[in-house]
C-alpha cells in the first residue's frame, strides 16, 4: 500500500527537459515506451477534471450571487472568501511554475501569444483549466506525431502532456483542499441549519455540495494517477483502479464532510476546534514520524511540509513518501473514526429526532455507511486493483532527485516526476 507525493519544497529542484528525455530514449533505442500512448483513457480523465472544476466553481458562484441578492451577508462573505482565496493561491503557484519553466534552459521558450493567453487565464483565476487544456493539446500533438511515424516526437509530446497533467493535478489538489472541501462543509451546514424552511435555494445548495464532494474525490484520484504516470519505475493506474479509488475517496469525503457539517450546524466553534486540534496532531505526527522524506531538502522544509500536509489530513490521507503505508492508514483512519463518532454523538445528544426524524436518523446512518463503504472500497482497491510492482520498460531516464547519479549502471531505474517547488 504505497503512494507517492511529488511536491518538492526545495529551491534547487529541476524540471526534466523533454529534449533531454528524447535524447535518452533515442540513445537506448526505445522508439516507443510501452503504455506511453495518449489515448481515450487520458482524454476522459482530462475532460472529467475540466467538467468537475467548472461545475464546482459555477454552483458556488451562483450561491454567492443568491446570498448577495437575499441580503445574507455572512453566508455571502464566507462563500466568496472560499472562492477567491483558493483561486489566488493556485494562480500564484501556477504563475511561479511558468516563470521557473521559462528560466529553465532545457525547455523550449513559449511564443508571445501563449504568454498572453496564460496571463488572461490567470487573471480569470482559471489556472487548472489552462493546464488541462495544455495537456490535451500536447496529447493531440502526440497522437498526430504517432500517426506520422515520428515516434521520437510522439514520446516527447507525451512527456510534455504528463508534465502539464501532473501540474494541473497538483494545482487541483490545492484548490480542492482550500475551496471544495470548505465549501462542501459550509453549504451542507447551511442546508442542515435551515432544513425546516423549504426554499428553492436548497436545491442549488445540494447540487453545490455534491459537486464539491465529487471534485475532492476526483482530485485525489487524478493526483495519484498523474503521480504514477509521471514515474517510469511505477506501474500505471488503469481505469478499473481509478474507478475503485474514486469510490473510496468519495465515500471517505462524504463521511468526513457530513460529520463536520452536523457538528458545525450546532456548534461551529467546536467544529473549528476539532479541525485545529486535528491539524496540530497530524502535523506533529508527520514531523516526528516521517522525517527525511524525498520531497524536502532541509529540516525547515520538513516542518513546513508537515504543516501543509497536516492541513490536508483534516479531510484525507496522502502518504508523505514511498513505502509501506498500511500502519499509517490504520492510525489515520482510527483517528478519523473517533472524530467522526464524536461528532455524531454530539449531534444525537444536542438535537432532537422529533423535529425531523428523517434528517436525524438519516444523517447518522449515511455517515456510518459512507465510512464503512470507504473502508470496503479501499480494501478492494489494494486487494484487486492496486498497480503493484515496478515498471522496467525504460532503463534510462532523467533523475531529478539525484542529478549526480550514474545513469550507466545496468538495471537501475530512475525516477521521473514533475517535482514542483512551492
From TrEMBL:
TM stretches of this protein: 40-68, 75-99, 169-192, 269-288, 300-319, 331-351, 358-382
Membrane topology: Multi-pass membrane protein
Cell compartments where the protein resides: Cell membrane; Membrane
Keywords, in A-Z order: Cell membrane, Membrane, Transmembrane, Transmembrane helix
Main localization, broad class: membrane
GO biological process: apoptotic process involved in development; engulfment of apoptotic cell; phosphatidylserine exposure on apoptotic cell surface
Domain of life: Eukaryota
Cellular component aspect of the GO annotation: plasma membrane
InterPro entries per UniProt: XK-rel, XK-related_scramblase
Family recorded in the similarity comment: Belongs to the XK family.
Protein name from the UniProt record: XK-related protein
Organism the protein comes from: Cryptotermes secundus
Amino acid at each position: 500500500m504505497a503512494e507517492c507525493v511529488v511536491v518538492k519544497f526545495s529551491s534547487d529542484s529541476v524540471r526534466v527537459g523533454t529534449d533531454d528525455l528524447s535524447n535518452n530514449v533515442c540513445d537506448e533505442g526505445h522508439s516507443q515506451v510501452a503504455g506511453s500512448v495518449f489515448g481515450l483513457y487520458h482524454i476522459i480523465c482530462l475532460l472529467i477534471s475540466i467538467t468537475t472544476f467548472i461545475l464546482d466553481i459555477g454552483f458556488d458562484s451562483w450561491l454567492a450571487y443568491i446570498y448577495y441578492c437575499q441580503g445574507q451577508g455572512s453566508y455571502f462573505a464566507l462563500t466568496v472568501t472560499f472562492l477567491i482565496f483558493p483561486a489566488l493561491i493556485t494562480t500564484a503557484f501556477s504563475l511561479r511554475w511558468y516563470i521557473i519553466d521559462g528560466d529553465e534552459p532545457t525547455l523550449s521558450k513559449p511564443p508571445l501569444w501563449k504568454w498572453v493567453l496564460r496571463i488572461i487565464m490567470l487573471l480569470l483565476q482559471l489556472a487548472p483549466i489552462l493546464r488541462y487544456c495544455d495537456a490535451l493539446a500536447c496529447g493531440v500533438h502526440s497522437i498526430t506525431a504517432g500517426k506520422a511515424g515520428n515516434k521520437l516526437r510522439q514520446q516527447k509530446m507525451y512527456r510534455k502532456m504528463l508534465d502539464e497533467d501532473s501540474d494541473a493535478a497538483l494545482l487541483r489538489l490545492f484548490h480542492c483542499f482550500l475551496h471544495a472541501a470548505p465549501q462542501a462543509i459550509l453549504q451542507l451546514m447551511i442546508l442542515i441549519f435551515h432544513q425546516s424552511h423549504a426554499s428553492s435555494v436548497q436545491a442549488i445548495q445540494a447540487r453545490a455540495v455534491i459537486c464539491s464532494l465529487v471534485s475532492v474525490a476526483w482530485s485525489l484520484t487524478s493526483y495519484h494517477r498523474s503521480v504514477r504516470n509521471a514515474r517510469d519505475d511505477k506501474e500505471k493506474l488503469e481505469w478499473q483502479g481509478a474507478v475503485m479509488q474514486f469510490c473510496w475517496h468519495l465515500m471517505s469525503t462524504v463521511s468526513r464532510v457530513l460529520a463536520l457539517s452536523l457538528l458545525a450546524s450546532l456548534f461551529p466553534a467546536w467544529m473549528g476546534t476539532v479541525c485545529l486540534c486535528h491539524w496540530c496532531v497530524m502535523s506533529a505526527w508527520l514531523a516526528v514520524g516521517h522525517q527525511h522524506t524525498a520531497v524536502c531538502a532541509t529540516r525547515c522544509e520538513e516542518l513546513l511540509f508537515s504543516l501543509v500536509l497536516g492541513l490536508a489530513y483534516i479531510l484525507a490521507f496522502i502518504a508523505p513518501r514511498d513505502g509501506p503505508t498500511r500502519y499509517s492508514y490504520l492510525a489515520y483512519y482510527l483517528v478519523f473514526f473517533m472524530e467522526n463518532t464524536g461528532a455524531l454523538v454530539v449531534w444525537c445528544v444536542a438535537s432532537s429526532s422529533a423535529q425531523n426524524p428523517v434528517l436525524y436518523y438519516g444523517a447518522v446512518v449515511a455517515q456510518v455507511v459512507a465510512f464503512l463503504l470507504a473502508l470496503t472500497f479501499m480494501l478492494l482497491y489494494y486487494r484487486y486493483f492496486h498497480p503493484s510492482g515496478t515498471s522496467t520498460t525504460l532503463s534510462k531516464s532523467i533523475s531529478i532527485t539525484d542529478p549526480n547519479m550514474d545513469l550507466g549502471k545496468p538495471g537501475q531505474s530512475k525516477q521521473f516526476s514533475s517535482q514542483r517547488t512551492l
